[in-house]
Design brief:
6 strands, SH3 type barrels, single chain, about 475 residues, alpha+beta, 5-stranded mixed β-barrel
Length: about 475
């Protein structure tokens, strides 16, 4: 059949060979009926709407959304997946229809679908029947359910109320746990306090001694805010520059030949000015020197230990610097003094100013006792800080270990003694007394050796010789 005749027959709705239908007539949305088709080598009829087309090497395959079929297998497959696409191969005369698949159909003849009223029933047997919009098929069931369960709404309301109360309790518990964790954590920058507020009536002195950095160092060179510390350091540098400029101007004016400039008083005044820079900075900008020293200590520690650092955070590191750098350079009283000062610095940096004063004053008492003649081992008992050369093992643990060794040694000694002897043989409760002789008789002095009657006949001891040959 010619292509013009096929096109005219297709337009009229007549059956035509599937492989001869013009592709332009098979557009998206066109509804077709395959009057002769094969599914798994079984004859059937299929109807549907075209949703796509694939042409590969002259072979045309339509992608179809099924609307109806006469094959029971296609009916079950479509019911399991209503949205699945089926592929319909438009067979030519040379197609052997041997290729099979679940979603593959071979079509031999086809035609254009007519109106639903003019088609047979199987053409639309896969379409879902929709009820009218104004008809509620489950209305009676809902009314019956409401009649049988009148307390359902009340139960739902109580259930929702319990759920809300439970959620509220969980949120309140989480909030309390977060608050407790926040109170336990120490502030890293010291700007905010997580310390528990203590009573100031003397009943909680340990907690009251700990103050926040903001309460102790606010506005000074040790302020927890980095911006304030930088401002104080900048002002300190300005003071030093002004003092240096004043010293230079006074020295230049003194070199003009005045006799006063070469006097001893002038020389002493110049030395005082050179040494007063540190005191001037300490008096005008408190905390600037301490901040600089702590920053330098931390930098040296980080370079030697290699630990991480938090820029802009001020921490006490004097004891660590003493352990790392100063302890190996000092000895004796100097070592003890450096250790005390370092510990006091760290206590002050932690906000424990009262504890810092206790440490310093107890060290002062110890030094005073040493100067008064008390041995240094006794004087150190007045100090708060422990001795430098302390052991990791505490004294009770060491005492227990020594007791165990003593008991073990005693058991070994008793086990090695000969048979018939016991511990009382060599103790206070047994054995021979002081006044008991070898034969069991008791005596004292010289009689203990020879008995009550003196030396016996034939005794060749020294005493016997003396008695036989008395001196004249």
């Amino acid at each position: 059949m010619r292509s013009e005749d096929v096109g005219a027959a297709w337009t009229r709705g007549d059956e035509v060979v599937a492989g001869q239908v013009p592709l332009l007539e098979l557009g998206r949305g066109v509804q077709v009926v395959f009057t002769s088709a094969m599914y798994y080598h079984q004859e059937c009829k299929v109807a549907g709407a075209i949703i796509g087309m694939d042409v590969v090497e002259g072979e045309t395959t339509l992608r179809l959304q099924l609307r109806g079929t006469t094959h029971e297998g296609l009916l079950k497959l479509h019911s399991a997946g209503p949205l699945e696409e089926f592929r319909v191969h438009l067979c030519r005369q040379d197609c052997n229809k041997e290729e099979v698949a679940d979603y593959l159909i071979h079509a031999t003849t086809m035609r254009k679908m007519k109106e639903d009223a003019k088609e047979e029933g199987w053409v639309t047997n896969l379409l879902k029947v929709r009820p009218a919009d104004d008809v509620d098929e489950l209305g009676q069931l809902r009314q019956r359910q409401q009649q049988l369960d009148p307390e359902r709404k009340e139960e739902e309301r109580l259930k929702q109320k319990k759920k809300k109360e439970k959620d509220k309790k969980v949120k309140e518990k989480d909030r309390k746990e977060k608050k407790i964790r926040k109170e336990k954590e120490e502030p890293q920058d010291g700007s905010s306090s997580s310390l528990k507020e203590a009573a100031l009536d003397g009943t909680q002195a340990r907690l009251a001694a700990r103050k926040t950095h903001m309460a102790v160092f606010a506005g000074t060179g040790l302020d927890p805010r980095e911006k304030v510390r930088r401002r104080v350091a900048s002002r300190a540098r300005t003071v030093v520059k002004k003092k240096r400029h004043k010293s230079r101007s006074s020295s230049s004016s003194g070199s003009s030949g005045s006799s006063r400039a070469h006097s001893p008083e002038a020389a002493d005044e110049g030395v005082f000015h050179q040494g007063s820079k540190v005191r001037l900075v300490a008096a005008s900008q408190p905390g600037a020197l301490a901040c600089q020293a702590l920053s330098h200590m931390r930098g040296l520690l980080l370079s030697e230990i290699g630990s991480a650092d938090q820029p802009g955070v001020l921490k006490g590191c004097a004891v660590a610097y003493y352990r790392q750098c100063l302890q190996r350079k000092s000895s004796g009283p100097a070592q003890r003094e450096l250790f005390t000062i370092a510990a006091a610095v760290d206590q002050a940096m932690s906000g424990n100013v009262a504890g810092c004063l206790d440490t310093l004053l107890q060290r002062m008492k110890s030094s005073e006792s040493t100067l008064a003649g008390t041995h240094w081992t006794v004087s150190q008992r007045l100090e708060i800080l422990p001795q430098d050369h302390v052991l990791l093992t505490p004294l009770p643990e060491m005492t227990t270990a020594r007791k165990d060794v003593f008991e073990e040694t005693k058991m070994k000694y008793l086990a090695s003694m000969p048979e018939g002897r016991n511990a009382s043989a060599s103790g206070k409760g047994g054995g021979k007394g002081k006044a008991e002789g070898k034969d069991g008789s008791r005596g004292s002095g010289k009689d203990r050796r020879w008995g009550k009657g003196g030396p016996q006949k034939g005794d060749t001891s020294k005493k016997g010789k003396e008695e036989s040959n008395p001196k004249v």
